[in-house]
Every structure is written in structure tokens, then in C-alpha cells.
Amino acid sequence: MNIDQVIQHFAIEGSMANAQPYGGGHINDTYHVVNSDPAAPAYLLQKINHKVFGQVEGLMHNIAFVTSHIRKKLLSKRDPGIHEKVLTLIHTKEGKWFYQHGEEYWRVFRFMKNLRSYDHPETTAQVYEGAKAFGQFLSDLTDFSSDQLCITIPRFHDLEYRLQQFSQALEVSHTGRKGQAIDQIKFVKDTAGELLVLQDLVRKGRVPLRVTHNDTKFNNVLLDEKDKGKCVIDLDTVMPGLVHYDFGDGIRTGSVTCEEDEADLSIVDVDIAKYEAYTEGYLDATREVLTPSELESLHISAPFMAFIMGVRFLTDYLAGDVYYKIDSPGHNLQRAKCQLHLSKVMLDRKKEIAELIQRHYEVPK
Prior knowledge:
The chain has helices at residues 3-7, 56-76, 82-85, 124-140, 159-172, 175-180, 182-195, 197-203, 243-254, 272-286, 292-296, 301-319, 331-348, 350-361, and strands at 16-21, 29-35, 43-47, 89-90, 99-101, 104-110, 210-212, 221-223, 229-232, 239-241. It has two domains: 3-110, 2-Layer Sandwich (Phosphorylase Kinase, domain 1), CATH 3.30.200.20; 124-361, Aminoglycoside 3'-phosphotransferase, Chain: A, domain 2. It is globular and about 60 Å long. The termini are far apart. It contains 14 helices and ten strands. 46% of the residues lie in helices and 12% in strands.
């Protein structure tokens, strides 16, 4: 089915002049739809990857519920920038949030012009603004019950589950692959216990399940032309989770000194100035809603997220590269080495980082 036929099923203003592929996402196919009416908005049309997100209806209801909740808050404040601060989902002419044609699932959002994302923030000011936007997203949803949401990816950040997958892959892995990953396998086994503390905190009821984004790569927040944080995007993984997932992944991608698959481990580190800027921005938006236990354990967030990503990459390498796309043989092992080393670097500096975070959540009122 072509793009013109799809877009006609949605209640857009005006009509489509043309559509071009947009962005660099690896999950969904995205198109920028230019309107034939220059006074009407442009749109983003996406084909949802239902192989990754099997419950499309639940996923779309999550997005509709969450964006509606945030929009109501902005309306109550009479915020003039509402179209820049929350995604606007466009329903079909039948009133649904997605259009299905055979095994294809499509959705449309209003296009946010003059906003941009950064794969790697260049300044601490950008880091602060992006972090504050992510924090505001969590804060705005504090009074929204996570029980209303569908689990779009079961056990997504469940380290116990990821370690089970790792153990299973290790049992059946080719001897040669295990031999190439001896150091990483040992690190995972030696370090897992220290990072399973988050699961212990949940079991003991010391940290609450919240509505979290669960994929806070820094390029999932949009900044304006003055680099002010505006809108959190890519809401496919919004579901119940821990604040540590969002804070940790933002740090993992917003304050590191290298790419996710850096081969030279000597340059894999955190930029402590960006780490502090992220902490300041995030806590400026969440300080009043996070519990003491959450605040006291935030320092484990980033090494946890780097570790769980390293475990997932290593598991895929041992299993024969069956999940992640690779650019070359050994790419998943290279990713695993980088992320596990990053986790080690942050664990080695956990006292310094814990003190840094504490300085910001104990800011006098």
C-alpha cells in the first residue's frame, strides 16, 4: 500500500503534497509528510514494526493515554507552546489511533518543526535541558497509574531475566565465540550481584514502579533552536518501570565520551561535567516527586543500564548474532566490551558519583 493511500485514512488537515523518508530509526519506518496547504501542519507517518511490538493496540493506547494526560496539564496552565511540548497523535477518520492494512500498522503524529535531537550533546547546557525534559516527562506522569498501561516489551530491563538469557546462550554457544569473550563472560558473572540490587529494592518495596519512558537515549528528546528542552519522543516503550532506567540510560548516552560500540576501551569514560549537568537538569524536574530511596540509589542507574546493555550484546554474540543488526563479524562483541567497560568505569567511580548526585538532591529549598 503506498503512502498516499495510507495517509488518506487519517483525519489530517489539508492533504499530502509529498512524503520523504525521515530520521535514522532502526525499528519503525518513518516519513515526513509535507502538506499541500502551507497554512496546515506537516505530519510524521510511521509504519509500526509489529514484530518488535506485538501488541500494537496496547502500545497505541499507551501513547494516547500518556500524551492526553500531559496535554491536559499543559492546557490547565494555558501553556502557549503545547504543540512543542507533547506529541500530538492524529486519529483515523474512524476514530482509531492506528490504521491496519493486512499485516501493516500505521500511525500519524503532527510534525514538530524547528525542533531537533542530538545523538551526542555537544554542551553541558544541552545536556541539562534534555535531562530536564526527560525529568518533566516522569514528573508529569507521577499522578498517572502505571496499572493503566500495556506492557509493550515484557521484562525489558529485568536484569535477572537478561542474565538467564545470557546463561542459556553461554550453554549452547560455539567454543570459538566463548573463547573470544572470556574476559567479558567473567566480568558479567563477577559483577551481576552488585547490580541486582535494583531488583532487591523493588522486592522489598523500597522503590516504586512508575510510568517511565524506558528508552531515554539522548536523541529521544527534542530541543528548540535555542537548545531549550521541549518534547520527549519515541513513546513505544512507555510502561511501568523504575526511575533508574530513565535516569541511567540518559546518562549512558548523554554523558559518555564515545560511541556505543567504541573499540578503543582506553577512551571509554564518562564526562563528569555532562554527568553533573544531566543530574542537575533531571533533579530540577523531579526532586519533589522522587522518594528518598530512589534518590539514594540513583548512582547505580547508569552502570546498571550500561551493564544490562552489555549483557544483551554479549548474549546476542554468543547466540550467533540473531537479534541486533551488525556491521561486521564481532560487532556485538565489540559493543559488549564497550558497554561492560563503561559499567566498570562508573562502578569504580561510584563513590564520587554518589556524592555528586547527593549534592544536587540536597539543594536547600
